[in-house]
Write a structure and sequence with these properties.
Layout: E1 15-18, E2 28-29, E3 44-45, E4 52-55, E5 61-65, E6 80-87, E7 90-95, E8 122-127, E9 130-135, E10 142-148, E11 163-171, E12 178-187, E13 202-204, E14 210-212, E15 224-231, E16 234-241, E17 254-260, E18 266-273, H1 280-289, E19 308-317, E20 322-332, E21 335-337, E22 343-345, H2 349-352, H3 359-385, H4 392-400, H5 404-407, E23 411-412, E24 424-425, H6 438-444, H7 446-451, H8 453-466, E25 471-476, H9 478-483, E26 489-493, H10 527-540, H11 547-565, E27 577-578, E28 591-592, H12 595-617, H13 622-650, E29 667-668, H14 673-680, H15 689-713, H16 724-734, E30 773-774, E31 791-792, H17 793-805, H18 809-824, E32 835-836, E33 841-843, H19 853-861
Helix pairs in contact: 8-10, 8-11, 10-11, 10-12, 11-12, 12-13, 12-14, 14-17, 17-18, 17-19
């Protein structure tokens, strides 16, 4: 009874859900072509870029993002924790998932009862990177499982590890001895996670976005075998292949399951059982006695055969005794492959090697250091969790939205001299499967900046290297495909244009950019500005001392701003939008000088001038000084030209008009993103402060308050569309020019265009959030429009950060809470979408932009 572990004291601000309790009416996807795996998502486990797995609050392991950038959502019944309990001669045993495998396997297993509204059986809690299962009213023991991976702010080693730790804490609250056994079983999945369709053919989906087939070797276990490993009190199995290659390819390697057996406990194992059978060979002894047969058999799987292994730890607890039993799951799959033959070692191989034979070493490291990792996570989170000025729901969402850094198809390569912490990238989302979309990360990269700044700079260095490059391959533009009209041809990447993204998993991430072809990214009016602003932001908020970072970026800054200035057709100082969707709202036409792009242009010029002056003050290179002087002079002249013009052209006394040529009276929610960035970076205001204050009040009133009042009134009678083409046709009926390609310019990337207008439906929780753009009375300009009537989670968080910056803290939190509730009350947790509609539908799950909630935190606390 000496030195007993304390029973876990969970944070008060976790996301909580009764174990196994579903939703009566979870939000569903807007179009069948988009991904909708349903609401059974839990916090992902695994290090950045190492691949991750997900375990839902049903208790099943069902998310397999093990191959970087690729998605598999499927429960694997044999991958399971189970518990045996014996007290006063009574025994019971459960596999700790609430549903049996749908394929009919494991029929001998008993499954844990799901909670109902009237009968709780436990609660799932999540506060990334930790989550907990608290089991109640089924077992005699008090039992909690804490699961986590060592994601630790400013840590560039352990945060990359391919490992999950499961710390089981058991307490005997009775007055009699109580015996428990905890079993971890796992199917040997070695070799499953690689695309067998090498360099797969790319097609255009009905929403205009490029897609390709992912054909993993799912279920191909030929030659796989499991080996027993014992070291001191550690017991485990290594699940690999009978003939591992000397130089592993993608998918090659090992898995391992391991446990630290306490001195008063006993470990058991079974190295080879059939996960496709009825499960009796494992369950009989476990359900009767809490033991396994201690069978060691490393016979390789024959063709078509499946193999799994299991370990168990059995202990007897005296009355009042508490005991902690750690388990670890690791996977050593060291190589990621993009197009055929394009391979990179993963970041964690810098610490464990790239031979694919370190799964046991990784698991051993976890069992040795898990307590230090727990302490380190708590230490970096504690100051934020202890803040009295932030509500628990905000703290919950703040941390849980970081899930995307693990689960967003993340890739992180091994270090090189050019990239000392490796190269890093997160997908825009799984529907729009390309990396680090620059317009999206303008909002969604604040968490990375504040917590892992070296990774943030690595991403921006990749963009700086990509700007001078060109790729003249022609391609069609998907936007016109959705309109049913002939598409203009566009080159993939023009020299000097800032790319939209850093490429896709099926090509060559970091090298072949501009994967998206929904719009012609070379014509976008925000990307160059987004690049400049993020470079300066990353410099300012990492100490304002990294001259090399600015110097590495300067050539690209100067080149891309000069490229963008070429779209200033009337030489008034501001590049004009071309009458097509040529910015992040890539289904929303802007024409002439626009509030959104024009404001970013002004802020980017201010940032470029500040960068240039800093470099000039910190160099004696005459050649560089000459270049700096010329470019700064250009930027200063353009700024003086355009700042007055922007305000005079667009200000109407209450807000900045969406653009100069459309005649629209729409209030755009994100009209002053440039002003937000300028104030955050301590640059001069791009518009008069009083006007900015009035405008943000107007946005809050029109896009949030009155828009939601309009929804409550039932005035918005929306149609349900079954395809993007049907939605486009309805929108075009209200907008005759929509069906024809613009004269001057095609559009822009990023298929946030899945949107049409199923805008009324069965009961939906209000308030919804702020619409992207409505008329001053909250009504839609066009009830069939796409982006204007969607609520974008990341744009709402960005708007809330701007409101905090402008002193509207209470309003900002009201808006933020509405969006957080939309996500976490409607089955969208750990798959946060880009867009939510008033019909209770969503678009583009697992979306990067939603990490903009960290901008709210940064501005609120004065860190930004």
């Amino acid at each position: 009874m000496q030195n007993q572990p304390s029973f876990p004291n969970l944070p008060s601000c976790t996301w909580q859900r009764p174990i196994g309790l579903g939703w009566e009416r979870p939000y569903t996807v807007r179009y069948p072509s988009n991904l909708d795996d349903g609401p059974w998502h839990g916090m992902p486990l695994g290090g950045f870029g190492a691949g991750c797995i997900g375990r839902s609050h049903r208790g099943d392991f069902n998310l397999w993002h093990v191959d970087g950038g690729e998605h598999i959502f499927q429960s694997v019944g044999a991958c399971q924790f189970s518990v045996f309990e014996q007290s006063n001669g009574h025994t019971q045993a459960y596999a700790l998932a609430t549903e049996a495998p749908p394929d009919g396997s494991l029929q001998h297993w008993q499954w844990y009862p799901a909670a109902t509204a009237d009968q709780p059986t436990g609660t799932y809690h999540a506060l990334y990177p930790r989550s907990w299962f608290v089991y109640e009213q089924v077992l005699q023991a008090k039992l909690v499982c804490e699961q986590f991976s060592p994601i630790i702010a400013h840590n560039y080693q352990e945060s990359s590890y391919p490992v999950a730790v499961f710390v089981w804490t058991a307490q005997n609250p009775t007055n009699q001895p109580l015996t428990l056994s905890i079993m971890l079983s796992w199917q040997n999945m070695t070799g499953w996670f690689t695309n067998t369709a090498k360099s797969p053919e790319v097609q255009v989906r009905d929403d205009g976005s490029p897609v390709y087939e992912y054909e993993p070797r799912w279920g191909d276990s030929t030659g796989n075998c499991n080996r027993l490993v014992q070291s001191g009190r550690e017991l485990g199995l290594v699940l690999g292949h009978s003939r591992p290659p000397e130089n592993p390819a993608e998918g090659d390697g090992q898995w391992a399951i391991a446990a630290a057996v306490p001195p008063q406990g006993t470990g058991f194992y079974h190295t080879r059982w059939n996960p496709a059978g009825d499960g009796a060979e494992l369950w009989q002894t476990f359900a009767q006695m809490g033991t396994l047969p201690n069978r060691a058999d490393d016979t390789p799987a024959a063709a078509g055969e499946q193999v799994a292994g299991a370990i168990a730890v059995k202990v007897t607890l005296q009355p009042g005794e508490t005991l902690e039993i750690p388990f670890a799951l690791s996977w050593d799959l060291p190589i990621m492959e993009f197009a055929e033959g394009i391979t990179y070692p993963k970041r964690y191989t810098d610490f464990f090697g790239a031979r694919g034979r370190a799964a046991w070493a990784i698991a051993h490291t976890a069992l040795t250091h898990y307590a230090q990792w727990q302490t380190a996570i708590q230490t970096w989170q504690r100051p934020m969790l202890q803040r009295q000025d932030l509500p628990d729901w905000f703290k919950m969402a703040l941390f849980n939205e970081l899930y995307d850094l693990t689960g967003g198809g993340t890739v992180w390569s091994a270090a090189t001299p050019a990239d000392p912490v490796g190269q890093f990238a997160v997908l825009e989302c799984l529907d729009y499967r390309w990396y680090e979309s620059l317009d999206v990360r303008l909002y969604g990269s604040f968490g990375l900046l504040l917590l892992f700044p070296d990774l943030e700079k690595a991403v921006m260095r990749a963009f700086a290297r990509a700007i001078p490059a060109s790729d003249d391959r022609p391609r069609i533009i998907g936007y016109y495909h959705t309109l049913g009209v002939e598409s203009p041809q566009a080159v993939r990447k023009a020299a000097g244009a800032t790319p939209h993204d850093l490429g896709a998993p099926n090509e060559h991430v970091w090298e072949k950019t501009n994967y998206t072809s929904y719009q012609d990214c070379n014509l976008w009016k925000d990307l160059a500005c987004d690049f400049v602003l993020q470079v300066y932001r990353d410099f300012v908020f990492t100490g304002s001392t990294d001259s090399q970072f600015l110097q590495d970026s300067w050539g690209a800054i100067a080149q891309t701003l000069h490229y963008l200035k070429c779209f200033d057709y009337n030489f008034d100082g501001i590049p004009e939008n071309g009458g097509a969707p040529d910015q992040t709202f890539d289904d929303w036409k802007l024409n002439g000088i626009s509030a959104y792009c024009g404001g970013l242009w002004l802020a980017a010029l201010e940032a470029a001038i500040a960068i240039g002056r800093y470099l000039a003050e910190n160099t004696s290179d005459i050649r560089l000084l000459t270049t700096l002087s010329r470019d700064i002079g250009d930027f200063q002249f353009w700024l003086e030209q355009s700042q007055w013009l922007y305000h005079e052209t667009l200000w109407n006394g209450q807000y900045y008009r969406i653009d100069s040529n459309s005649g629209s009276d729409v209030v755009m929610a994100d009209q002053l993103c440039g002003q937000f960035y300028a104030r955050m970076l301590k640059l001069p205001d791009i518009v008069p402060y009083d006007c900015a204050k009035t405008a943000v009040h107007t946005v809050y009133d029109a896009c949030f308050v009155k828009f939601n009042d309009y929804l409550r009134s039932g005035a918005l009678q929306a149609q349900q569309f079954t395809s993007v083409q049907e939605a486009r046709a309805a929108e075009a009926n209200d907008s005759p020019e929509a069906a024809a390609p613009p004269a001057a310019a095609p559009p822009a990337p990023e298929p946030e265009q899945d949107s049409a207008a199923p805008l009324s439906s069965p009961p939906i929780q209000l308030p919804l959030g702020a619409a992207n753009g409505v008329r001053p009375d909250g009504s839609p300009e066009n009830p069939n429009s796409t982006h204007p009537l969607e609520v974008w989670t990341g744009i709402n968080f960005g708007l809330a950060a701007f409101m905090v910056q402008m002193g509207l803290r209470e309003e900002a939190m009201t808006l933020t809470q509405a969006v957080v509730q939309q996500i976490y009350d409607n089955g969208l947790q750990f798959r946060t979408p880009e867009a939510i509609t008033p019909a209770g539908t969503f678009r583009a799950s697992h979306y990067l932009r939603a990490m903009a909630i960290w901008a709210i935190y940064g501005v609120w606390t004065g860190q930004l």
